[in-house]
Specification:
The protein is mainly α. It has one domain (about 25-84). Helices cover about 80% and strands about 0% of the residues. It has helices at about 5-45, 50-55, 60-80. Helix 1 (about 5-45) packs across helix 2 (about 50-55) and helix 1 crosses helix 3 (about 60-80). The longest helix has about 40 residues, at about 5-45. The radius of gyration is 18 Å and the shape is globular. The protein starts with a helix and ends in a 6-residue tail after the last helix.
Length: about 80
């Protein structure tokens, strides 16, 4: 007989580990995007666009947009941020 409680507990711990890994991945990519933005601004003499950031970091453009959007949402939790 399978212990359902034990099975659910294992699934929950796997889910929590996956979420934790996802958070770390997003944070790492966010830091990489930030560093790339600073580096490219200095190198190019202008603010890099999404395409330039994608080429430099090898992160797909849509993923960069999503990470930036998440960053803006996280900042707005701490105070009022007006988006344009």
């Amino acid at each position: 007989m399978v212990n359902l409680g034990k099975t659910l507990c294992l699934r929950c711990s796997t889910f929590v580990a996956n979420v934790s890994g996802l958070k770390k991945s997003i944070l790492a990519k966010s830091a990489l995007i930030h560093e790339a933005t600073m580096h490219l601004a200095e190198e190019l003499g202008k603010v890099a666009d999404i395409h330039e950031l994608s080429e430099y970091t090898k992160i797909p453009e849509q993923e960069i947009k999503d990470i930036v959007e998440l960053s803006i949402d996280a900042i707005s939790i701490g105070g009022d941020v007006e988006r344009t």
